[in-house]
Specification:
It contains eight helices and seven strands; from the N terminus they run H-E-H-E-H-E-E-E-H-E-E-H-H-H-H. It is an alpha+beta fold. Strand 3 and strand 4 form a beta hairpin. Helix 2 runs antiparallel to helix 5 and helix 5 packs across helix 7. The longest helix has 25 residues. This is Nucleotidyltransferase.
């Protein structure tokens, strides 16, 4: 029963992505697929919660307005780093200031073109996604189990030394990376990363 529910939830997220991408392309608003859905694009597990789209700060409100005109419900949360939209029951986070990864022209350029379920779009670079997730760990949000699932699935594509360097100021990220190393998930410090495989359609 739980598997059926998860499958329906993932299908709903894909439907939301299918609805949002052409709207943003038509409005000529640059964006990246981020969050757990981006990790799925690199071979990670199917997410079942929400959809994260990443925008430069100057583009986020324009993106929300474009989605609203296309029939998405919208709302302004108390957080100062994102806006929100809904496609039916799926929450779409319009993120413009994730922790530790400014969304700017360089971040957009680092993204990778992917075709996901016949949807062509740019996906946030894997190290950018994982940096933002690791830097979001704190004493109030310290559930590492799902994060371990994500990195285990894509471990051969990660530049672990780069990830360590970019998250070095966070004791929570340091603890997670040590755990990943002790579990045999991450490459030891100083190990050359394995080149990412060519783009495929999940």
């Amino acid at each position: 029963m739980g598997g059926d529910l998860e499958a329906r939830s993932f299908d709903a997220i894909v439907d939301a992505l299918r609805a949002a991408v052409p709207v943003l392309h038509e409005a000529e608003i640059p964006f990246l697929l981020g969050g757990s859905m981006a990790v799925w694009a690199y071979g990670g597990p199917e997410p079942v919660n929400d959809l994260d789209l990443m925008f430069r700060p100057q583009d986020a409100e324009r993106a929300q307005q474009a989605l609203a005109r296309a029939g998405f419900r919208t709302g302004d949360p108390p957080e100062e780093w994102l806006l929100k939209a809904w496609h039916h029951d799926v929450l779409v986070d319009l993120i413009f200031a994730p922790r530790g990864v400014p969304i700017d022209d360089d971040t957009l350029a680092r993204g990778n073109e992917r075709s996901l379920s016949a949807i062509r779009l740019r996906v946030m670079a894997l190290e950018d996604v994982l940096t933002s997730k690791l830097l979001a760990l704190d004493e109030h949000q310290l559930d590492m189990s799902y994060l371990l699932q994500l990195v285990r699935a894509v471990r051969e594509q990660v530049d672990w030394d780069e990830l360590r360097r970019r998250t070095a100021d966070s004791p929570y990220a340091e603890a997670f990376l040590l755990l990943a190393e002790r579990l045999g998930i991450s490459a030891p410090p100083g190990t050359e990363p394995t080149p990412a495989p060519p783009a495929t359609t999940p």
